[in-house]
Design goal:
The chain contains 46 helices and seven strands. With 842 residues, the chain is mainly alpha-helical. The strands form two sheets. A five-stranded parallel β-sheet has the order 2-3-4-1-5, sandwiched between helices. It has a two-stranded antiparallel ribbon with strand order 6-7. A hairpin with a 7-residue loop joins strand 6 and strand 7. Helix 22 packs antiparallel against helix 23. The longest helix is centred in the middle third of the chain and has 18 residues. The radius of gyration is 33 Å and the shape is elongated.
Length: 842
């Protein structure tokens, strides 16, 4: 089922004949197209002719786009989809799925900036329906960065939360408001007499204009009623009251003057946001929907054409609201049937989102649940997470609990909200449904077939989030036992959790090998999003293995693949920049780290992985600490803790422990001691970061730390080069604090000589006030190409075969080999391989 572009949202209302000429408003709109002018805001209550005015004006522009907004556009992915479809002259690709919106908008801006002769206009009509902060932020970002070639027009009943004062002060904003849009007496006369065909005296026109205060909708309603009134003056004299009273009164008058079948048509079709003949027929049970719409259009009965062919319409929102209120008051029992008929029509015409909405409005929750169940694969594949969360939140608990697929979706929703107990209850519901339910009641989908395995996968995720390593492995392995050879997603997810459990246990080499295999399964499943997300885990694992260069290569290659085809960029893009910032920070390249973080901040506003959204603040806190701004570092960590959500990734660097390290560096040992009081003495990788932090505190207090470090080293030996490096640095720090500088330097030299990539670590030493051991620090790292050669040296291939495999000449291969020998201190091929293994390069 399609949840894509609704074409009728992209057409301005078809221009009517006999419009009242309002040249001064057209001139105001024309003047907004001057270079540097960003926004035209047309803001007024319902019925003041905003859409008619802007639609008539935009129809005369050479290059213009139109987007009629509705409540469904509060879902950011849907809004972006329609925005891209509406933009005139855009050349970059339309965003798909859960993407970093600001990255896509940046590309949009750049695209227009590269087209100096584009001069395009984009209209967002009915913007008042937007309540989503995400959508507001996206449009505000666009406004802040609009090139001269693109101008935005927003028509709305209420001012949007944009930086209007700033735009106003800079002369970048034109505003048309109620006082601008009110019909003057002459315009009211032209409308009532020339357009509506009435023959009112000037004094009657003036009186009606005064009564309505120039309100176009009120004039139209009054004009429709006056067509059948003999005493126009008496009617106008009695015509008074608030807008709400006027609406109720005139709507009643208009409805009662319609033929019975037309009145029935109006009431029953008021449940629809958009109207076309066959849809109206489905709702009314009649066969003349198209003809009635044409009749209403000709009669100016508050109908707006949505396309040039006049096959799709909508009611004026004000008139629709009146009709709905009347239907609710007169025959509320009909509403479920009308919405159910609309849902069935949308199902048959491939619009899942509308079908679900009407099923929910009908109170037909069983039908809505089945529609959601059938739509899950596509919605999940296209990463319309907000839509899926909206649906699962709207379904009654009883419907969700009886369905294993919906229960699994609800478990995922609970996990994204950090509600682990709620997640467990939903998984129990899924198991109960599978055990006691009737499969005939469920949609026959791939999700249903793999539901038993997916329940286990999510139980593994829950155990991982709780730090229960053995349970993680147990659930993941049971899921793998249920998976068939072609169930690549289950196999990838199950293997991934086995790898994450190995990581949580500190078995980094096993975790790397297992996780790489899991990623290959995700690739086979066609799940590119999760495959790209896996780069973040791989980078962390390479860091734990003491291989920052491999982490950098993983991030860089994934980033290159992610942006190769241009925006919209995958959601992982922001997290990759955060990873690169962390690596640059360790190299003490703080400027580069900040540059990556600034870019990541732009990209991550709507596109970061949920479990990683705290990491930007963590890394920025580390940068600020490196700059000596400890107070801001603590503030950033507090924000990181607020955003942290336990999830699939093991929490090997708790934020509280990092905050304690900042306190220690700032000399606030009291705060650090308060934290350290609750740190257990258990030996585990999940507790290692905290205990290494305790070691720092003990050193600062002059306490003997050798026993603690011996215990930690014994656990890390042969498994985690990164941990061994930090332990060695703390041994050196303890000696230096005790006055043995020579001993400290010797420990550092020994530690760094055993480290796979000693040249990649600077801040680890600088943060502790230690000198970099120069003989070690000067060792050149192997380049990526030299690493490729090294791996092939560890095979049975001959030199010429290796050269052919790498598409290089034999002389080039010899040059690479010679450099490898020099850097590793080897003289033979076997010696180079042996030294590489000792340093963890192979």
């Amino acid at each position: 089922m399609s949840t894509g572009v609704i074409a009728t949202k992209l057409f301005p209302p078809a221009r009517r004949s006999g419009l009242v000429a309002r040249p001064w408003l057209a001139e105001r709109l024309d003047s907004t197209l001057d270079r540097g002018h960003r926004l035209t805001l047309v803001s007024a209550p319902a019925g003041f002719g905003k859409t008619t005015l802007v639609g008539d004006w935009v129809g005369r522009q050479e290059r213009a786009g139109w987007l009629s907004l509705d409540a469904g556009d509060n879902a950011l992915p849907r809004f972006l989809t329609h925005l891209w479809a509406a933009l005139p002259g855009i050349r970059v690709a339309q965003p798909q799925g859960d993407v970093p919106v600001t990255a896509a908008l940046t590309a949009l801006v750049n695209d227009y900036a590269e087209q100096p002769d584009c001069n395009a206009v984009l209209v967002l009509d009915d913007y008042h329906v937007i309540e989503s902060l995400d959508v507001h932020e996206a449009v505000a970002f666009l406004l802040d960065n609009l090139p001269d070639q693109l101008h935005l027009v927003v028509s709305t009943r209420a001012d949007p939360p944009f930086p209007l004062p700033r735009l106003r002060s800079r002369g970048q904003l034109t505003e048309l408001r109620v006082d601008d849009l009110r019909f003057a007496a002459a315009e009211a006369g032209a409308f009532l007499n020339d357009v509506m065909g009435l023959r009112l005296a000037p004094e009657d026109v003036e009186a009606l204009e005064n009564r309505t205060e120039g309100w176009a909708a009120g004039l139209q309603l009054a004009g429709l009623t006056l067509r059948g009134v003999s005493d126009a003056a008496g009617f106008i004299e009695a015509f008074t009251g608030s807008h709400r009273f006027v609406i109720d009164y005139l709507a009643d008058e208009v409805l009662t003057r319609q033929r019975a079948e037309v009145r029935e048509f109006l009431l029953r079709t008021s449940v629809l946001d958009r109207l076309t003949g066959s849809l109206c027929d489905a709702v009314t049970g009649q066969t003349a929907g198209g003809r009635v719409l044409e009749e209403l259009d000709r009669a100016n009965v508050f109908l707006v054409a949505l396309d040039a062919g006049r096959s799709w319409y909508r009611y004026h929102h004000l008139f629709r609201d009146v009709l709905r209120a009347r239907l609710q008051a007169e025959r509320p029992e009909e509403l479920p049937r009308l919405h159910r008929a609309a849902s069935e029509w949308y199902t048959g015409n491939g619009s899942t989102a509308e079908a679900v909405r009407h099923a929910l409005a009908a109170g037909d929750h069983e039908r809505a649940g089945r529609l959601v169940e059938e739509a899950v694969p596509e919605v999940r594949r296209t990463r319309q997470d907000a839509l899926l969360l909206e649906w699962i939140g709207a379904l009654p608990d009883s419907v969700v609990r009886r369905n294993p697929v919906l229960s699994v979706v609800a478990a995922w929703a609970a996990m994204t909200a950090g509600e682990l107990d709620g997640m467990e209850r939903r998984l129990d519901d899924a198991d109960a449904a599978l055990a006691a339910g009737d499969p005939e009641l469920w949609a026959d989908t791939e999700d249903l077939r793999t539901a038993p395995a997916m329940v286990l996968i999510y139980r593994a995720a829950l155990a991982q989030a709780r730090g229960e390593v053995e349970a993680t492995v147990r659930f993941a392995e049971r899921a793998l036992e249920l998976a068939g050879p072609e169930d690549h997603f289950v196999r990838g997810a199950g293997g991934g959790f086995v790898a994450l459990a190995a990581w949580a246990n500190g078995d980094v080499a096993d975790a790397l090998a297992t996780f790489a295999s899991a990623v290959r399964e995700l690739h086979a499943a066609g799940n590119r999003v999760d495959e790209q997300d896996a780069a973040i885990v791989l980078g962390d694992l390479w860091m734990a293995a003491g291989r920052p260069s491999r982490a950098r290569k993983t991030y860089s290659e994934t980033l290159e693949n992610a942006v190769r085809n241009g925006p919209p960029y995958p959601r992982v893009t922001a997290d990759l920049h955060v990873g690169l910032a962390e690596l640059d920070r360790e190299l003490d390249d703080l400027d580069s780290a900040e540059a990556h973080l600034e870019l990541a901040k732009t990209l991550s506003e709507h596109g970061s992985i949920t479990e990683n959204r705290h990491r930007w603040y963590v890394v920025m806190a580390q940068v600020r600490a490196a700059q000596g701004d400890f107070a801001d570092a603590v503030r950033l960590l507090d924000e990181a803790e607020r955003r942290y959500r336990p999830g699939s990734y093991p929490d090997v660097r708790p934020i509280a422990a990092l905050r304690a390290r900042i306190h220690i560096a700032a000399g606030d040992l009291t705060a650090a001691e308060a934290w350290a009081h609750d740190i257990p003495n258990t030996v585990s990788y999940l507790n290692e970061y905290g205990r290494l932090t305790v070691a720092r505190l003990m050193i600062r207090r002059g306490e003997d730390v050798r026993g603690l470090l011996d215990e930690l080293q014994a656990d890390a030996a042969g498994r985690r080069a990164g941990s061994l490096l930090e332990i060695g640095v703390l041994r050196a720090l303890a000696l230096q604090v005790g006055g043995d500088r020579a001993g400290a330097l010797e420990i550092l030299r020994q530690t760094f000589s055993e480290t796979p990539e000693p040249q990649q670590y600077k801040r680890l030493l600088l943060d502790e006030g230690l000198a970099v051991p120069q003989p070690v620090a000067m060792v050149d790292p192997l380049t990526d190409r030299e690493l490729d050669v090294l791996r092939l040296l560890d095979t049975e291939l001959t030199g010429p075969e290796i050269a052919r495999h790498l598409y290089v000449s034999l002389n080039t291969l010899r040059t690479h080999t010679k450099r490898i020998f020099t850097k590793l201190g080897a003289t033979t091929r076997s010696g180079a391989v042996r030294r590489a293994r000792e340093r963890g390069l192979l």
